[in-house]
Design brief:
The chain is mainly α and 174 residues long. The protein has a single domain (3-26, 35-103, 110-167), classed as Four Helix Bundle (Hemerythrin (Met), subunit A) (Up-down Bundle), CATH 1.20.120. It is built from six helices and two strands. It is globular and about 45 Å long. It comes from Virgibacillus necropolis. A divalent metal cation binds at residues 48, 136, 140.
């Protein structure tokens, strides 16, 4: 796999840790507090991101998109009900699964034929889809930032540029 995609995935993992660390600093009820937003609570956002990431690793591993979507739907309520510490542990375990998959992929890029639910088939690769996974996480971390502001709290910076700066300056903690 290309170096940029690996770095993007590392960034995604770092940014998720930043969000979890910030959420754990706030009152416990913030995690489930209802807000008028794209998602009804931060717990729903994180469940969505987790299930989407889980779905993509299943597709990368050879499962169909229909299987992935079914799995996500099947696990939705159970995942939303998890507490913040348990959700964080699930994200970390899933990140380890991604990293192991990337190591096993070595330098070759796995070709994917993804059949969308509408029947269309897209030919792509893991290499091309990693930025999608990362971008999806970035988008929803933005949702969380907006939701926190609605509730009267600040978020934490999770920009890719900050990640690069911290990594280059030696201030980066994995």
């Amino acid at each position: 796999m290309a170096q940029l995609e690996l770095q993007l995935y590392d960034y995604n993992e770092w940014a998720n840790r930043q969000i979890f660390n910030r959420l754990k600093e706030l009152p416990k009820d913030v995690y489930r507090q209802e807000v008028q937003s794209v998602f009804s609570s931060i717990s729903h956002v994180l469940a969505h991101v987790y299930l989407s990431d889980l779905g993509w690793i299943e597709v990368f591993s050879g499962k169909s998109m229909n299987y992935s979507l079914m799995l996500q739907e099947q696990l939705k309520e159970e995942t939303v009900s998890k507490g913040i510490e348990e959700m964080e542990a699930m994200f970390l375990k899933l990140s380890e699964r991604y990293k192991l998959f990337f190591i096993q992929l070595e330098d070759s890029d796995k070709s994917l034929m993804i059949e969308n639910p509408n029947g269309d088939i897209m030919e792509t690769s893991v290499f091309e889809q990693v930025p999608h996974v990362v971008n999806h996480g970035t988008y929803h971390r933005g949702n969380i930032t907006a939701m926190l502001r609605q509730m009267g709290y600040t978020s934490i910076p999770t920009d890719y540029g900050l990640y690069l700066y911290l990594k280059q300056s030696g201030a980066f903690h994995e």
